[in-house]
Amino acid sequence: MPAINKQSRIPYYFQLADTLRQQIKDAAARGRAMSVPSENELADKHQISRATVRHALDILEREGLIYKARGKGTFIAKARAKYELTWLVPTTEDILRRGWKPGTQTISTQRIAPVPSIATALELGNGDEVFEIHRLRTADGEPICLQWSYLPAQLCPDLLEQNLTASLTQLLEERYGLRLWTARSILRARLVQPAEAKLLQIPRNSPVIYIEQNTFTPEGHAVEFLKSVWRSDRYDFVVNLSRSLTA
Amino acid sequence: MPAINKQSRIPYYFQLADTLRQQIKDAAARGRAMSVPSENELADKHQISRATVRHALDILEREGLIYKARGKGTFIAKARAKYELTWLVPTTEDILRRGWKPGTQTISTQRIAPVPSIATALELGNGDEVFEIHRLRTADGEPICLQWSYLPAQLCPDLLEQNLTASLTQLLEERYGLRLWTARSILRARLVQPAEAKLLQIPRNSPVIYIEQNTFTPEGHAVEFLKSVWRSDRYDFVVNLSRSLTA
DNA sequence: AATGTCTACATGTGTAGACAAGCAGACACC
DNA sequence: GGTGTCTGCTTGTCTACACATGTAGACATT
């Protein structure tokens, strides 16, 4: 069974990466040890060039699934949380991955002139307005976090007429062509405020995680400014880190 | 002035990436707009093949410095905190990058039998012992965080006889050949404990960030388990996120 | 027993060239 | 004016090959 379909318009390197990814996943599920064939073996086996094989392996290495050792070969990294990477993950999807049922309750929406700090964060000029969307996110019915999203009104007209209880990320991409590509988050601990405590259904003076996040398109334009307050008794933040590849 | 030194044993693609990185940084500092020449131009100019140019540009793209548009060209991403990436950064280095003077105060060290959770995290068997290193880290003389490091005694004999006020990461790499390659952190907010508050010089009941971090070698072996408690009034956590490349 | 050398094989780096596919501007045509 | 089409640029994918460099084992030498 040739894993590479040469008729497909999907690039060979992508097909190969996908095939190997699946094999690694399956092997891990069965508890079997599986090694990665050498680059030449893979090239011979699938009748593609070694450069193409290396392209596929590059991708898997970046994902942390494999590692290479010069002179020795390519090996499967020990099974970790490899499939939960440090990528930009929409809240809805993140809750789903943790095996919970996501829910959303819209608390308020309005079109306003932004305060200076938010105008700066969104690179807006005088007179530009923003939508503020204040929502409560739940997992299995239990409150998880409060979010305040700020989006330039110009970029997404009619946003407030849309269904805001579904994934905002998906809505922005599909209706407005806004691809959320990179983000920069600042994170700190603080005490919950009384009004927040009530909505989150936690005691007063509970510690919470407070996050401010700027999100950008591939071209580097600011799309969203997001403030959020997270319960810390129910929700841990997991970060996977790696050494710089260029160091 | 040819940017590529063909006599050097440093790979061309690495030299080119470094040159471009510097040019982008300089241009940003001067507030100038600078575009990236086409791949063929770069290949001609430096007398190297297009494949090598692409290798260099790949690296810069992964770092978020540039982005490519098929049919149009390669462009510089808007200036962000591009140089503070989401990599695994040792505490000492992180404090330096923020422009502070790092300091370390060793509170206690001991060789102990680990509690089960730590033994599991470090993949230890019965009878294996660990070093516990409890330190207070400071920036510009002010307490920043408390750390408890746990390391398998087998991997780094004589560790407690070394100078522990310098960078532990550097010590592990240079003396014991242990390369800290990937890490998985779990992060939550909690209230500071009285003893911790005293050491950190913050009020009782202050919220703090609590982190547990597992660190691994490239082969996926556990090297270090680190618990830490961070002041949240002085230290923000910054995370840069990006979309998966394969999505 | 320790050391050096050779060999086979692995990944790392680099070349030259080919064709595909997306974009934008010029241009002719209706 | 509006619409296609052509052309020349860009990046994307892929091949076939060459040589460098690191690893490990077999083997001979000391």
Notes on the protein architecture:
Two copies of one chain form a homodimer. Chain A is α+β, with helices and mostly antiparallel strands. Helices cover 28% and strands 31% of the residues of chain A. Chain A has a six-stranded antiparallel sheet. In chain A, a hairpin with a 2-residue loop joins β4 (130-139) and β5 (142-152). In chain A, α1 (12-30) packs across α3 (50-62). The first copy, chain A, starts with 11 loop residues before the first helix and ends in a 5-residue tail after the last strand. Residues 80-87 of chain A have low confidence and may be disordered. Chains A and B meet through α3, β6, β7 and β9 of A and α3, β6, β7 and β9 of B. The structure holds a DNA duplex (30 and 30 nucleotides).
Using a beta-carbon cutoff below 8 angstroms, give the protein chain pair with the largest interface and the number of residues from each chain.
Answer: A-B, 54 and 53 residues
Question: Strand order within the widest sheet of chain A?
Answer: 3-4-5-8-7-6
At the fourth level of CATH, the homologous superfamily of the largest domain in chain A is: Chorismate lyase-like
The structural class of chain A is alpha+beta
Oligomeric assembly: homodimer
Please identify the top-level CATH class of the largest domain in chain A.
Answer: Alpha Beta
User: For the terminal residues of chain A, how far apart are their CA atoms?
Assistant: 40 Å
Gross CATH architecture of the largest domain in chain A? 3-Layer(aba) Sandwich
How confident is the prediction overall: mean pLDDT of chain A?
A: 82
Number of domains of chain A: 2
N-to-C SSE series of chain A?
HHHEEHEHEEHEHEEE
Tell me the number of helical segments of chain A per DSSP (H or I, 4 or more residues long).
7
- Based on CA inertia axes, which overall geometry of chain A fits? elongated
